[in-house]
Amino acid sequence: MDGLFFNKLLAGILVAGIIAMVAGMVARAIINPVVPEERAYYVEVIEDPSSLIQGPQGPEAVLALLSGADVANGQKIARTCATCHTFGAGEANKVGPNLWQIIGAPLARAADFKYSKGLLTHKDERAAAGFDVWDYEALNHFLFKPKTWIPGTSMAYVGLKKVQDRADIIAYLRSLSDSPAPLPSAEAIAAEAAALAPPEEAAATDTAPEAAAPAARE
């Protein structure tokens, strides 16, 4: 009996010791976790948030699209502008100036309209860059992002990012005239395409070898 009691006592002490040892290991793991030398999962940190911006940083060329542009769709898009602008001949200005026969008009043409300080400040700068009138290219730049092309403009419109939409609304503005302006020439289309080509395309064009001259025919 004494031997059996002694064996039970030893077994109990042994079990208690094992439990205490396991509990200690668990406690140490919780209080002092082991940090691996290398991360099991890497999170890429982007230093330049601007790299997340999708789409072009400036407007794509629009001249080549004008001949086939949808004037009706342009008129539909222009309905959002009707709060601030009028479109008919002789109609009064609203918050924004009347847009009848705007193609080819000077940047601040209406003597009876108080233009924003931004336009008055930057119109000479725009003219120096070759945009002294509201031609197709000037409208393309302005409609893409008004507040970037004319800093300080009071026009709250954020801009049209889709090039086809810009082509359509420019075609509609062209129709607002008794004598619509001529469509752009092939030379103007090519010049605009070269000027607004993405940097990688422009670089490829600059570094491309010149084509060999065709052999003269006998």
Poorly predicted runs are: 38-55, 205-218
| Separate helix tally | 8
Terminal CA distance reads: 128 Å
Strand runs, count = 0
Strand content: under 5%
- Indicate the radius of gyration in whole angstroms: 35 Å
Structural class: mainly alpha
Characterize the overall form: rod-shaped
Description:
The protein starts with a helix and ends in an 11-residue tail after the last helix. Helices cover 44% and strands 0% of the residues. The protein contains 8 helices and no strands. With 218 residues, it is mainly alpha-helical. Helix 2 crosses helix 6.
Topology:
Blueprint: H1 2-31, H2 71-78, H3 117-128, H4 136-144, H5 146-149, H6 163-175, H7 186-195, H8 199-207
Helix pairs in contact: 2-6, 4-6
Report a brief summary of the structure.
This protein has 8 helices and no strands. With about 220 residues, it is mainly α. Helix 2 packs across helix 6.
Which keywords apply here?
single chain; 0% strand; mainly alpha; 8 helices; 218 residues
